[in-house]
Structure formats: structure tokens, C-alpha cells
Amino acid sequence: MGEMTVTTLEGRRRPTTSPIAGESDDRNGRNLLRRLRTPRRPRLWFEILLIAVSYWTYSLIRNAVPEQKTAALRNADWLWDLEQTLGIAVERSVNHAVDSVTWLIVGMNYYYATLHFVVTLGVLVWLYRRHPGRYAATRLVLFATTAVALLGYYLYPLAPPRLVPGGDFIDTVIVHNTWGSMASGDLKNMSNQYAAMPSMHIGWSLWCGLTIFALASVPWAKVLGLLYPVATLVVIVATANHFWLDAVGGMICLAFGYAVVRLWYGRLPYALPQHVEPVAVTRSRR
After folding, report:
1. 252: in domain
2. What is the pTM of this model?
3. How many domains does the chain fold into?
4. Residues 230/208, Cβ–Cβ less than 8 Å
5. What is the domain extent for residue 207?
6. Dihedral angle sign, alpha carbons of residues 119, 121, 124, 130
């Protein structure tokens, strides 16, 4: 019934599309879109492979962005002047104050180097185990946030405060001989040093914090979730790896990630069902 013919006045027969076939195609398209939007149970090995390949690709692209040193330093001077105009240019004071407390700044160096990855992976594992119905959508927020950040690295190269000549910032990793930054010390050649805007330390930590706050069942976990991005903000400034406004850039990228998921699923990821409904299997009788 997909096609019918019509006889014209000349006696010729020509094919015409059946309305039923068109309706069927539209229905199939809607069903396909509905299936794509329906949360599914995540598969462990696929997720491990996906996250590994995605982070490798992100690192590869980020580091492949040309290190536009002149433009990065010029943008850093402009951003620093803007913050001074706004009255929020306190990064240098924070950097010097925290650096005077050795145990504190050394701890922040290691915080910067490790928790960015450890906590993010921990939240993904927690989602996978406890909230499988929300896992894919929440993971999509993280992926979309990270993807749009790559545009920022390319379009707006920015030197971190510790690399600004005459800025009087302290590179705490070099001074205290720790490995708190991939862009300092012996590891600096492995990372693009002029990709400070936006700050994915803030983008990822705020993603973690909001996810924990929205889904954790105990109050103390919710509080810790909110404190994590705040602590991260202090760390990235105290170690002179970012300006305050880099953090704003990370927040904007995260907002984009949530917008993508809101458009795709029709709701925020935390409003999706916690568990995936089992798929009913029907057998046709002959």
C-alpha cells in the first residue's frame, strides 16, 4: 500500500505517493527520535572506551591549538586591566598570601593536579551505579561543555597569570618543586600553556558539584558538592593558573552543556528517571 496509480485524461498511468506511506514515514521518524532520546542502561566497557577516547581527543585538540604567545599575552593584559577596572583584580594578593603558607600552597598544587580528574571520574562512576537513567544525559552535559571549551582555546588564546611578564605572580609549582600543573616544570612541553580561557577546572568541578547537590540523598554530601567548585576556584587563583574571569568562561561553557541536554531530552538530566525501565519483549504469534 506504499504506492498507488492515477489514470490521467490522456489515459496514462502515473504513480502517486499514498498518504498512508507518508504518515508511516513520519511516524517512523518520530519513533526513531523518541528511541534516541529515551535513556538506556549504560554499558560499562563502552563507557570506559568512550571516556578514554573523548579525553584523548580533547587533549590532542587542546594541545594542537597553536600557542599564540603574542596574542595570549596581549589578551592577558587586557583581561587584567578589565578586572582592575571592575575592582575584582585580587588574584595577585591571593597568590602571594597563600604562597606564604608552604603546606597550604603545596596541597593546592596537588589538588590542582589530581582532583580535577579523580572527582570527575568518581562522579561518573557514581552516576553509572546509582543513577543509570540519568547517566547518559549528565555525561552529555560534561561532553558538550568540554567540546565548546575547545573553541575558546582556539578563538581566545590567553596566558595564565603566572606567565604574564611583569605581573609579579608566583608560579607555585616551580617555587615549591611540585607537579601541580601540566603547564609548569618538566611537563610544560606536553600542554598548551596559552589555553587558560575558559577554565575547565571550574567547568568540570561545577558540573560535579551541581550533580552531587541535585542527586545526593544526604545533606552533608550536598554541602560538599557545593563547596567543591568554590574550593577549586580558590585553588586556580592561588596557584596563578587562572584569572577570575577564566572561571566565568567555564561557567558559560557549562551553561551551554546544560542547554544542549535541555533541548535534546526536553528536561534537565536530573529530572529524568533514576533507573532505566526494562524493555518489554513481545513475540508475534504465527
Report:
1. yes
2. 0.80
3. 1
4. no
5. 75-266
6. negative
Residue 246 falls within a domain, yes or no?
yes
Residue range 4-61, pLDDT digits in tens: 444 444 455 555 555 555 555 556 555 555 665 666 667 777 788 878 887 777 777 7
Output the CA–CA distances (angstroms, integers) from residue 231 to 45, 111, 148, 226, in the order listed.
32, 10, 24, 9
Residue 36 lies in a domain: no
Query: Collapsing DSSP states into helix, strand and coil, what is residue 271?
Result: helix
Looking only at the bridges linking them, the beta strands covering 3-7 and 13-17 are antiparallel
**Per-chain mean pLDDT for the chain:** 83
- Cα(first)–Cα(last) distance of the chain, in Å? 22
Work out the burial of residue 222: count CB atoms within 10 Å of its CB; fewer than 13 is exposed, 13-18 middle, 19 or more buried: middle
Cα 149 from chain centroid (whole Å): 8
The H or E element that residue 5 is part of is strand 3-7
Cell of 48: 570506559
For the ranges 15-19, 47-51, 139-143, 275-279, the lowest mean pLDDT is seen at 15-19
- Look-up of cell digits 562512576: 125
In a domain, 10, yes or no: no
Find, among 154, 143, 152, the residue nearest to 66 by Cα.
154
Examine the pLDDT at 177 and tell me if it is beyond 70: yes
Contact 39, 139 (CB under 8 A): no
pLDDT over 90 (residue 219): yes
